[in-house]
Amino acid sequence: MKRSFASDNNAGVHPRVMKAIVASNDGHVIAYGDDPYTARALEKFHEQLGSDAQVFFVFGGTGANVLGLKAMTQSHHAIICAETAHINVDECGAPEKFTGCKLVPVATSDGKLTIDQIKPLLHDVGFEHHVQPRVISISQATEMGTVYTPREMTSLATFAHAHDMLLHVDGARIANAATSLDVKLRAITRDAGVDVLSFGGAKNGMMYGEAVVFFDKTLAIDFKYKRKQGTHLPSKMRYISAQFEALLTGELWLHNAEHANRMAQLLAQELGKNPQIKITQKVEANGVFAVVPKKYIARLQKKHFFYVWNEQTSEVRLMTSFDTTEDDIADFISLVTRIVK
User: Fold this and answer.
1) Closest to 202 in 3D by CA, of 164, 243, 245
2) Contact predicate 106/81, CB 8 Å
3) What are the structural domains of the chain?
């Protein structure tokens, strides 16, 4: 299948990650994570995020978010998030079902929450008839392709902690954010005051697998039971662990994300030359959002598939991946030039 701009989930597996999977497929090891592959992968996480970070591998991103939030909340709590957040839009109600909490979505122009938007939601703290705000959940990078700066994240964490709340980060594209900001991973996680992080792998060159990372260790005390009860304890964990070890070795995570981001910048630059196309968001990670005249979209999608983000405004989303090439972009731009006139 031709490489598309639909999703970084559509990309294949990086050759180094695939090689690591194959190499781990050797003989027997103890199941459920008590194996040398998992031990080495955890060491890699500790190098990046600190030796006291508590790291748990799970199958996928929704599971990582749901289980991380479950560890942070009780059922009478509320989770504040952007209206466009993955937990609000694309997880089929799983956070509400499994945590019992109410999601409180906030409308944003760029996918980013601010303290001023959150403050009005705290006026009923202590009122027994209303859910109690407990978690601020942000996506880094956001679903709109934008990125929180370390300062913005620190401000949100400081505000959350001052109001007896916690900061959760959906880091499905945390690598793209770190690369965009040119900072180390810990600068936008533990050093910024994040309490719980969902660390993404599948969108950055892995076959499958994510990690739930606790910087507040008290939240992780019973997590191994929550993971098991939540059906996310991999028996053959070595196959996830081997992938993470490969991803976090030799800065593969960085190179993959850096390339995807650079391709998004190139795509936006070339699309922006067409007077009928308007780029709608800052291109800070690996997503490009643009308004394309509706009459052209179906024809463009036939050759290079992508999703329509907003049917009413004819805004589309184009995602680049670690394996997107300049030729892919040139081919798509050539198509756009022929069709969108």
Assistant:
1) 243
2) yes
3) 13-247 (3.40.640.10), 252-339 (3.90.1150.10)
- Encode the chain (341 residues) as per-residue pLDDT tens digits: 678 999 999 999 999 999 999 999 999 999 999 999 999 999 999 999 999 999 999 999 999 999 999 999 999 999 999 999 999 999 999 999 999 999 999 999 999 999 999 999 999 899 999 999 999 999 999 999 999 999 999 999 999 999 999 999 999 999 999 999 999 999 999 999 999 999 999 999 999 999 999 999 999 999 999 999 999 999 999 999 999 999 999 999 999 999 999 999 999 999 999 999 999 999 999 999 999 999 999 999 999 999 999 999 999 999 999 999 999 999 999 999 999 98
Calculate helix-pair angle for 174-181, 252-271, nearest 10 degrees. 80
Q: By the 8 A CB rule, do 139 and 105 touch? A: no
Q: Are 235 and 207 in contact (CB under 8 A)?
A: no
Name residues whose C-beta falls within 8 Å of residue 267's C-beta, 6 or more positions apart in sequence: 5, 288, 318, 320, 329, 332, 333
Instruction: Tell me how far CA of residue 146 lies from CA of 108, 113, 149, 180, 215, in angstroms.
Output: 12, 11, 10, 10, 24
Note whether 85 and 148 are within 8 A (CB): no
Q: What is the DSSP string of 115-144?
A: HHHHGGGGTTTT-TTS-EEEEEEEESS-TT
Sign of the four-CA dihedral 181, 143, 269, 313: negative
d(CA 161, CA 238): 36
**In terms of Cα–Cα distance, which of 137, 125, 123 is closest to 166?**
137
Specify the DSSP element, H or E, that contains 16: helix 15-24
Q: Residue 132 forms beta bridges with which residues?
A: 77
